[in-house]
Structures are given as structure tokens and as C-alpha cells.
Amino acid sequence: MIKQQSFKNGQATLYLVATPIGNLQEMTPRAIEILKTVDIIAAEDTRNAHKLCSHFDIHTKMISHHLFNENESAQGIIDLLEQGKNVALISDAGYPVISDPGQFLVKKVIEADFNVVPISGSSAFLNGLVASGLIAQPFAFIGFLEHKENALRKQLQEYKDFPMTTIYYLSVHKLAKTLEIVYDELGNREICLVRELTKVHEEFLRGPVLEVIEAVDVIKGEFVLLIGKSEEEEEISLNTLIEEIDSEIASGTSVSRAINAVAKRYKVSKNELYAQYHDIK
């Protein structure tokens, strides 16, 4: 057991300083003061950090701490703490550690018996959550969606039955395809897709997956994707679903389109219904 009394034990401190996710006015006075008064700033990208610090007239010495030098840099930061120096860790935007470097460093600093102190600020996934219209608690922040299709499908299945809102980060690359896979694996759930948080082009797309897919027209940016939990519906028997599919086919619809239509109508997974239909047929 480790007890930390952050401002009473006289130990050197690693500050985890949240920085703006877009709008610089969200930089807190406390964050500015910490960055001005620590001995060293450890930054994920020193070029971006210099721009931020220049804006707020911060001239503290800076070192690099990123994913590719994390182990070596962590030991260097512990060495600084052992010399009695205070260090602030910042990422490119938002909180360090959250889908950004810092987890390994925090663990090692705690093991070395130094303070780890958070400095509050912006968080993209929390901003998205509270304004999404989806149930805000409980929730699960998963992190970045997988890029490869098979890994993405496996990831969605892993959290499919979580009885809560799940939150992901994703980039614009293959956005429409990613949302189609979300529909295939989870059905036509309520989602919220958020981009450009705190900036002039901030945008929320709220609604069932298929409606959001139709509305997506952006070509750049990073997104927060919030997925509502599976709603309890009146249970529909597989026989009923098969009869509906056969009815669609009898009216001249192709098998794949019939399955897609029935899956959408009853908010079930298209992939699962497709497999069940062909198992029976």
C-alpha cells in the first residue's frame, strides 16, 4: 500500500498537466502556473509544446517524452525527481496517459515513491460524453478503434454486451467503412460522432448508425465515437426473422438485401442474422 499526501510530504512531484484539445482559452490558470514553476516540462512533441508555451509566455526547460523513447525517458525523469526537481508531463492535447504516453512513467514514478499529481483540464471523450445525449454513467472509455478490419470486429464484439455507453477515438481514414462495420457487428444502435471539439467547426452527429453513415461528409479530422448500450427489445424469435426474410425475397428482393432490411427493422446484427439464415437454409 502506498499513501501519497501530495502537498505535505516534501517529495519531488510529477505533474500530469491536461492541455487544450483545440481552444486555447481552456488552458487553466493552474496549468499555466505549474508549467511556469516546474523545473522541467516533458512533452510528447516538443514542437507543439513550444507553440503552446510561447502562447502563455512559459519559458521552462523542455525534454521529449514520447512512445518511442518512453522507457529511457522515464528513467531520466526519475533521475530528475531524485535530484529534487519537479517535472510536468504534457501530451499534444488533453490528458497525458489517456491514449497518450505516460502510463509506464506514472507506474515507475509511483514505485520510486515520488508524487504523481493530476492538473485538471480538457478531455475529448468526456466532452463528447456529456453532450452526446447517451447515458452518461456508467460508461467505458476503450481508446482508439483498431485499424485492421478483423481486429476491429473482434474489438467491437469484446465490448458488445457492456451494459453502458462505450467510447472510442478514431481518425477519418475509412470512417464510413468503420461505421458500416459497427452496424454489422452491433446493429443499428444509437451513436454520437463528434469532431473538432471546442473549435469553430465543432460538430455532433447523433442518431442510429445508419442515419449517421448517411450524414457523414467530412474528409479530415479526428473523432470521438460514442456507442449506446444495447437496448432491451421485445425478443423476436429466429423463426419470425426468417419468415420476414423469406417474405422480402418473395417480393423480389435479393437475399442479402432482404437480410439487411430485416436486420435494420428489428435492430439486430446483420452478420449474425446472415449466418443464422444460411445455417437454416
UniProtKB/TrEMBL annotation:
CC terms in the record's Gene Ontology section: cytoplasm
Localization per Swiss-Prot or TrEMBL: Cytoplasm
Group of enzyme by EC: transferase
Signal peptide span: none
Gene3D superfamilies: Cobalt-precorrin-4 Transmethylase, Domain 1, Methyltransferase, Cobalt-precorrin-4 Transmethylase, Domain 2
Cross-referenced Pfam families: TP_methylase (PF00590)
InterPro entries reported for this sequence: 4pyrrol_Mease, 4pyrrol_Methylase_sf, 4pyrrole_Mease_sub1, 4pyrrole_Mease_sub2, rRNA_ssu_MeTfrase_I, SAM_MeTrfase_RsmI_CS
PROSITE patterns noted in UniProt: RSMI
EC code(s) of this entry: 2.1.1.198
Keywords of this entry: Cytoplasm, Methyltransferase, rRNA processing, S-adenosyl-L-methionine, Transferase
Catalytic reaction(s) noted: cytidine(1402) in 16S rRNA + S-adenosyl-L-methionine = 2'-O-methylcytidine(1402) in 16S rRNA + S-adenosyl-L-homocysteine + H(+)
Annotated ranges, domain Tetrapyrrole methylase: 13-210
Tree of life domain: Bacteria
A single GO molecular function term of this UniProt record: rRNA (cytosine-2'-O-)-methyltransferase activity
Chief location of this protein within or outside the cell: cytoplasm
Cited function: Catalyzes the 2'-O-methylation of the ribose of cytidine 1402 (C1402) in 16S rRNA.
Record PANTHER family: RIBOSOMAL RNA SMALL SUBUNIT METHYLTRANSFERASE I
Family: Belongs to the methyltransferase superfamily. RsmI family.
Protein's UniProt name: Ribosomal RNA small subunit methyltransferase I
